[in-house]
Design goal:
- The complex is a heterodimer.
- Chain A is mostly helical.
- Chain A contains 22 helices and two strands.
- Chain A has helices at about 1-5, 10-20, 25-45, 70-85, 95-110, 115-135, 140-170, 185-195, 205-210, 215-235, 240-260, 265-285, 285-320, 335-345, 355-370, 370-400, 410-430, 435-440, 450-480, 485-490, 495-530, 540-560; strands at about 50-55, 60-65.
- In chain A, strands 1-2 form a two-stranded antiparallel ribbon.
- In chain A, strand 1 and strand 2 form a beta hairpin.
- Chain B is mainly alpha-helical.
- The radius of gyration of chain B is 21 Å and the shape is globular.
- The longest helix of chain B has about 30 residues, at about 330-360.
- Chain B has a domain at about 285-485.
- Classes of the chains: A mainly alpha, B mainly alpha.
- At the A-B interface, helix 6, helix 7, helix 21 and helix 22 of A face helix 6, helix 8, helix 9, helix 12 and helix 18 of B.
Chain lengths: ~550, ~500
C-alpha cells in the first residue's frame, strides 16, 4: 500500500517535498525540479478511472478519480509546481519550496479526490502547506500567516461539518454535483467559497499573499483558489447564487486593485477578480461555461504566475514593492519587463494571448444562456481588468517615471521560468487547440473570428485610452507616498471621497473587528490559561473544594422537583 | 477450568502480586513480576472480551454466593473493553518502565513502585469488572491510594503537593460516591447494580435516588476530571513519574468514565437520567466549557506534560459530551473515544517520558530543535497530536466523527459546532509542539541527546502505530464501542 501510494501524483509530490526539506545542495535542487515532472508523468500514465477504493467506517472512499476535469486541473498544478520550483530554486529559505511542493501535491490530491473525505484531508494539508510557504518568508509574515491559517482551518471546519451532515443524511461520501438545498450542503459550499476568496471573507487573500517572499506568492497564487474553482465546477456547477457572487468578486477585485499602490497587492486583488470570472462560469453551469471556467483557470494560473514572477523579480532586485517607489525599470530589466507585459496582455485577454481564448468562452456562455446583464457586466469587467492589471502594473513598475534604479535582470533560473510561462501564454493564445482538447466537454467554440477580435480590441483600446486620459488623476494621487488611507481620501477629487471612504470602511468593518475580536479572545485566553492565570495555574485546594461544592449544590438544586 | 475464573483473577492476580513484590525487595524482580502479571491480565482481558462478544454477559459469583447476596462480577461488552484497555496499557508500559523508572526513582524505592503499580492495576480492573456498588468503592480506594503514592514518587518536589491535593480531592470524590451509594441502598436495599436497577422502578419516594445520583455524579466527576472539578489533574500528570503519567492518563479517568456510564445507563437507565432530570444539559455545558477552556489553557502552557494534561481535560469533555446526549449513538461515540483517546494519550505521555529522559524535563525551552535531536520521537509525537486534533487517518478522527454524527442525530447543532470549533484549539496546542520541535534551534550549549533507548522508544512507537492503525481501520473499535453501548443500555433494564 505504501509503495502504490507513491504512484498517486499528489502524494508523490507532497512526499518529495517533505524529503527535499531534509536534503541539501544538488540533490535537493534535482528533487525539487524532477518531482513535479514525475507527478505530471504519473498523471498521464494511468487511464481515466477510479483508483484507491476502500471502505472506511463503512463508507466507500475513492482516493483518485481521474477524468477530464480533474486531470486538467492536476496537469496545470504539476506544470505550475515545476515552473515555480525553477523560479524559486535560488530561494535561500530551506522551507519554502519543499513546503510549496507539499502544498502543490495536496492540491493535486484534492482535485483528484473522488469523495468528500479524501477531499477534506487534502484540503487541510493544503492549508498547512500554504501556511508554511507564507511563513517561510520570515518574521514579517508571521502574523499574516496565522490569520491565514485560522481562516483556512475555519473553512476546513465548515467543510467537515457539511460533510458529516451530508453523509449522515445520504449515507454516501461520494462527491458529485449537488445543490445547496440542505444545511449540510450549504456548509460544504461555504467551505469551498471561502477558499475561492468569495465575499464576505475575500480579504484573507490580499491580506496574506503579498506578505509571502518574492517567490512564495507565485506558488500561493496558483493552488488554493483554483482548487476551490475545481470543486465548485465539480460540485456546484449551475448553482445560480454563484453568478452574483462571482460578479461581486470581479468588481471587488477591480476597484481595490485600482486603489492599491503595492504592486503585489494589486495582483492579489486581481486574483479575486479573475477567480470571480471562474465562479461566475461555475454558476452559469452550461457545458460551455464549465469549459470556459476550467480553461480560464488553466490559463490564469500561467499568466498570473508570470505576472507574479516578474513582480517577484523586481522585488528581489530592488527590495521595493510600492508603485510609487518604482518606475523606469525596463531599461535595465528588459526581459522581466517583456515577460511582465506578456502576462499583462494575457490577463487582459489580448488576442494571441492565452487569456483571450479562455475568458471569452465564459462571456460566450453568458450570451448563449441569454444572461444579458451578466454578459454586459463581464464585458465591462474586461475593460476594468485591462485598467488595473493590464496597464497599471507594467506602466507603474517598468515605465512611468525614472526611479533612478538600474537593477539587472534576475538570475538565469528565474529568467528561464519566466520565459517558460511567457511561452505558454503566447503558445496557448496562438494555438488553443491542445488546451481545448483537454477540456471536460467537446469544444465547438472558435475564438478567432473577426467579430471577437475586433470587439476585444475595441474594448482594450478604449480602456487603454481611458487609462492614459485619467493618468494625471491617477498619477497625482500616486506621486504622494500613499502609506495610509487618510492621505488618499484628502487628496483625491471629491467624487472619489465617499466611494473610497465607503470601501475603506467596508474593509475596516469586515477585517478590523474580526481581527480585533480574535486578538482580544486570544489575549484573554492566554491570560487566564497561562501558568499564572486563573485556569492554567495550580489551584489552591480550597478552590478545588469550592468547585466541588458548587457542582454538587448545582446538581442538587437543578434536580429539585 | 481457570477461564471461568478470569473475571475475578483479573483483579486478584495483581492484588496478590503486590505483597509478593514487597517481599522480594528487589527492583528487578519487582519489574519482572509486574511484567508477567501485566501480560497475564492483558491475555485474560482479551479472552474475556472475545468471550462476551460471542456469549454475552458473564456473571461470576465470588465464593459461589449467588447474587444479590454475594458479590457479583459481571462482565459484558462494555467493561471487558475497558479492562482490555487498562491491562493492555499496563503491558505496553512495562518494558518502558525499566529504564524510565531507573532514571527517575531511587534504587531502594523501585520495588515499592512496582508493588504500587500492581495495586493500582488491581484497583482499576476491580472497578471495571465488579457488579457491586460497595465493592467498586473498595477498589476505587485501592487504586486511588496507590495512585497518590505513585504520583508522589515523581522527581520534582512539586509532585508531593500534587499528590496531596489529589489525595484530598480524590478522597472527597470517593466520599461523595459512597454517600450516593448509601442513598441508593437506602431506597432499594441492595448494593448489586443489576438488582438495584430492577428495584428502582418500584421505589415510591424518588428523592433519595435523585440526591444519590447528584452525589455520584459529583463524586465520579471529580475522579474523571470533569471540568471544573479537574484542577487536581494537571499537576498530578505533570509531576508524576513518566510511566505513571502515561498509565494514568490512558486508564484512570477512563475507568471513572465507565463507572459514570454504568450508573447512568445500566442502573438508572437513560430515560430516568436524561429525560426526567437536568443531568444531560448540565453535563453538556460543563463538557463544552472543558473543550474550550481547558484546550485554550493547553495552548499557553510552558511544559509539554502540562499541555497534555490540560488537553486531557478537554478530551474528556468530548467523552462526557457523548454521554450527555443520552442516546445509544452518543454513548457509543463516548466509548469509542474512551478507547481511542486512551491509546492516543498513552502514546503521547510515553513519548514525553522518552523526551524527559534525554533532556531532563519537558519544558518547551528544552524541547527546541527536537525534530533534529530526537527525530523519531518528535515525528511520532506529531502523529499522536494529529489524533488529538482528530485528523482523518488517526484514531481520534473516528470517535470524533461518531460524536459529531451522534450530535447531529440528536439535532444538537450547537454541540456539533462546539466540537468542530474546539478542534481548532487542538490544532493550536499541537502546533506549539511542531513549532518548537521543528522551527527552533536547539538551545545553545545543550547536549545533543539522540533517541531514547529502544526499550522505551519501541513501546511508544507501538502505541503510535496503534493510533494510526485504528485510524485507518476504525471499524473494530467503533463496533466494539457500539456493542459496549448496547450492553450498557441493555444490562439490568
Amino acid at each position: 500500500m505504501t509503495a502504490s501510494a507513491l504512484l498517486h501524483p499528489g502524494v508523490w509530490l507532497a512526499f518529495a517535498g517533505v524529503a527535499a526539506f531534509f536534503l541539501r545542495g544538488r540533490a535537493r535542487q534535482a528533487l525539487l525540479l524532477a518531482a513535479p515532472l514525475v507527478a505530471l508523468a504519473l498523471l498521464w500514465t494511468f487511464p481515466e478511472g477510479t483508483y484507491g477504493r476502500w471502505a472506511f467506517l463503512g463508507y466507500d472512499v475513492t482516493v483518485v478519480r481521474l477524468d477530464r476535469l480533474s486531470r486538467l486541473f492536476a496537469t496545470i498544478f504539476a506544470i505550475m509546481a515545476f515552473a515555480g520550483a525553477l523560479f524559486a530554486i535560488g530561494q535561500p529559505s530551506r522551507l519554502e519550496v519543499p513546503a510549496a511542493l507539499l502544498y502543490a501535491g495536496s492540491a493535486i490530491g484534492a482535485v483528484l479526490a473522488g469523495d468528500l473525505l479524501t477531499l477534506f484531508v487534502f484540503w487541510e494539508v493544503m492549508a498547512v502547506g500554504s501556511t508554511l510557504v507564507l511563513w517561510s518568508a520570515g518574521p514579517r509574515a508571521f502574523s499574516a500567516s496565522q490569520r491565514y491559517l485560522a481562516m483556512h482551518l475555519f473553512g476546513g471546519m465548515l467543510l467537515m461539518a457539511g460533510t458529516v451532515g451530508h453523509v449522515a443524511a445520504t449515507g454516501s461520501l461520494a462527491f458529485e454535483t449537488m445543490r445547496p438545498d440542505t444545511v449540510a450542503k450549504a456548509l460544504i459550499l461555504a467551505g469551498f467559497l471561502l477558499n475561492a476568496g468569495a465575499p464576505p471573507l475575500s480579504a484573507w487573500l490580499p491580506d496574506a499573499y503579498p506578505e509571502a517572499s518574492w517567490s512564495g506568492m507565485v506558488f500561493l497564487s496558483a493552488f488554493t483558489t483554483k482548487t476551490a474553482v475545481y470543486v465548485l465546477l465539480r460540485g456546484f456547477a449551475g448553482t445560480e447564487i454563484l453568478v452574483p457572487i462571482g460578479l461581486f468578486m470581479v468588481f471587488y477585485g477591480i476597484v481595490f486593485a485600482i486603489l492599491e499602490n503595492d504592486m503585489r497587492r494589486i495582483l492579489a486583488y486581481s486574483i479575486v477578480n479573475q477567480v470571480g470570472f471562474m465562479v461566475t462560469g461555475a454558476g452559469i453551469g452550461t457545458d460551455m461555461a464549465v469549459n470556459g471556467a476550467a480553461a480560464h483557470a488553466f490559463t490564469h494560473i500561467i499568466y498570473k504566475a508570470l505576472l507574479l514572477m516578474s513582480a517577484g523579480a523586481v522585488l528581489l532586485q530592488t527590495g521595493k514593492r510600492k508603485c510609487t517607489d518604482l518606475g523606469g525599470l525596463f531599461q535595465s530589466m528588459p526581459l522581466t519587463a517583456a515577460c511582465g507585459i506578456v502576462g499583462a496582455l494575457s490577463i487582459s485577454s489580448f488576442p494571441l494571448t492565452s487569456g483571450f481564448v479562455s475568458k471569452s468562452m465564459i462571456s460566450q456562455a453568458a450570451a448563449d444562456g441569454h444572461l444579458q446583464a451578466v454578459w454586459m457586466l463581464l464585458a465591462a469587467a474586461s475593460a476594468g481588468v485591462f485598467l488595473h492589471a493590464g496597464i497599471k502594473f507594467p506602466w507603474f513598475v517598468f515605465f512611468q517615471k525614472d526611479s533612478g534604479m538600474r537593477p539587472p535582470d534576475p538570475p538565469a533560473p528565474m529568467r528561464a521560468a519566466m520565459l517558460l510561462m511567457a511561452f505558454l501564454c503566447i503558445g496557448i493564445g496562438m494555438a488553443p487547440g491542445p488546451l481545448y482538447a483537454l477540456l471536460p466537454y467537446p469544444v465547438s467554440y472558435v475564438p478567432y473570428t473577426p467579430g471577437h477580435v475586433v470587439a476585444m480590441l475595441q474594448l482594450l483600446l478604449f480602456s487603454g485610452l481611458a487609462f492614459f486620459l485619467l493618468l494625471p488623476l491617477l498619477r497625482r494621487t500616486l506621486t504622494i507616498t500613499l502609506d495610509t488611507d487618510w492621505l488618499w481620501r484628502r487628496l483625491v477629487p471629491a467624487a472619489w471621497g465617499p466611494l473610497e471612504a465607503g470601501l475603506a470602511g467596508l474593509r475596516r468593518a469586515t477585517l478590523g473587528p474580526a481581527r480585533g475580536l480574535a486578538e482580544r479572545v486570544a489575549g484573554t485566553a492566554a491570560r487566564i490559561g497561562s501558568p499564572a492565570g486563573a485556569i492554567g495555574r495550580s489551584w489552591a485546594t480550597r478552590t478545588m473544594m469550592l468547585w466541588v461544592v458548587v457542582v454538587l449544590a448545582g446538581l442538587l438544586l437543578l434536580s429539585y422537583r | 477450568m481457570p477461564a471461568e475464573h478470569f473475571p475475578v483473577l483479573l483483579a486478584v492476580v495483581p492484588l496478590v502480586a503486590a505483597p509478593l513484590i514487597v517481599v522480594a525487595r528487589s527492583g528487578f524482580l519487582g519489574w519482572a513480576i509486574a511484567f508477567a502479571v501485566a501480560a497475564a491480565t492483558a491475555a485474560m482481558s482479551a479472552s474475556l472480551l472475545a468471550r462476551v462478544t460471542v456469549e454475552g454477559t458473564i456473571s461470576y459469583a465470588i465464593g459461589s454466593w449467588p447474587p444479590p447476596w454475594g458479590i457479583e462480577y459481571r462482565v459484558d461488552a462494555a467493561n471487558a473493553l475497558v479492562a482490555l484497555l487498562v491491562s493492555a496499557m499496563a503491558l505496553v508500559a512495562m518494558p518502558y518502565a525499566r529504564r524510565s523508572v531507573t532514571a527517575e526513582i531511587g534504587q531502594e524505592r523501585q520495588y515499592l513502585f512496582y508493588a504500587l503499580l500492581m495495586l493500582c492495576l488491581s484497583g482499576l480492573l476491580g472497578i471495571a469488572l465488579t457488579g457491586d456498588a460497595f465493592n467498586l468503592f473498595v477498589f476505587l480506594e485501592i487504586s486511588s491510594l496507590a495512585t497518590y503514592v505513585l504520583i508522589a514518587l515523581g522527581r520534582d518536589r512539586r509532585a508531593l503537593t500534587a499528590a496531596y491535593q489529589y489525595l484530598i480531592l480524590g478522597t472527597t470524590g470517593a466520599t461523595l460516591y459512597i454517600i450516593g451509594v448509601g442513598m441508593l441502598y437506602l431506597a432499594t436495599g441492595t448494593l448489586n447494580f443489576a438488582d438495584m436497577a430492577a428495584r428502582l422502578d418500584g421505589v415510591a419516594d424518588t428523592r433519595p435516588l435523585v440526591v444519590g445520583l447528584a452525589f455520584i455524579t459529583a463524586g465520579i466527576g471529580l475522579k474523571l476530571a470533569l471540568f471544573p472539578l479537574h484542577a487536581w489533574l494537571p499537576n498530578a500528570y505533570t509531576y508524576a513519574p513518566s510511566v505513571v503519567s502515561a498509565f494514568l492518563a490512558a486508564t484512570a479517568t477512563k475507568v471513572s468514565l465507565y463507572v459514570l456510564m454504568r450508573v447512568y445507563f445500566s442502573v438508572f437507565g437513560a430515560d430516568a437520567v436524561f429525560r426526567d432530570l437536568p443531568i444531560g444539559p448540565v453535563l453538556a455545558v460543563l463538557s463544552v466549557a472543558a473543550l474550550f477552556v481547558a484546550s485554550a489553557a493547553a495552548i499557553v502552557q510552558k511544559d509539554l506534560k502540562r499541555l497534555l494534561a490540560f488537553s486531557s481535560v478537554g478530551q474528556i469533555g468530548y467523552i462526557t459530551l457523548g454521554i450527555s446526549l443520552g442516546s445509544a449513538t452518543g454513548l457509543a461515540a463516548a466509548m469509542a473515544h474512551v478507547v481511542n483517546h486512551g491509546i492516543t494519550k498513552g502514546a503521547l505521555f510515553l513519548l514525553a517520558g522518552a523526551m524527559a529522559l534525554r533532556l531532563g524535563g519537558t519544558g518547551f525551552d528544552r524541547l527546541a530543535g527536537l525534530g533534529r535531536t530526537m527525530p523519531v520521537a518528535a515525528f511520532a509525537f506529531v502523529l499522536g497530536g494529529l489524533s488529538l486534533i482528530g485528523v482523518p487517518g488517526t484514531a481520534g478522527f473516528a470517535s470524533k466523527w461518531a460524536l459529531v454524527a451522534a450530535a447531529m442525530g440528536a439535532g444538537q447543532w450547537w454541540i456539533v459546532a462546539a466540537v468542530l470549533l474546539s478542534s481548532l484549539l487542538a490544532v493550536a496546542y499541537v502546533w506549539r509542539f511542531v513549532e518548537c520541535a521543528y522551527f527552533r534551534e536547539p538551545p545553545a550549549g545543550a547536549p545533543s541527546p539522540g533517541e531514547a533507548p529502544w526499550e522505551m522508544t519501541a513501546p511508544a512507537l507501538a502505541m503510535t502505530a496503534a493510533v494510526v492503525a485504528l485510524g485507518l481501520h476504525a471499524t473494530p473499535v467503533l463496533d466494539a464501542a457500539t456493542r459496549a453501548a448496547a450492553a450498557l443500555m441493555g444490562a439490568g433494564r
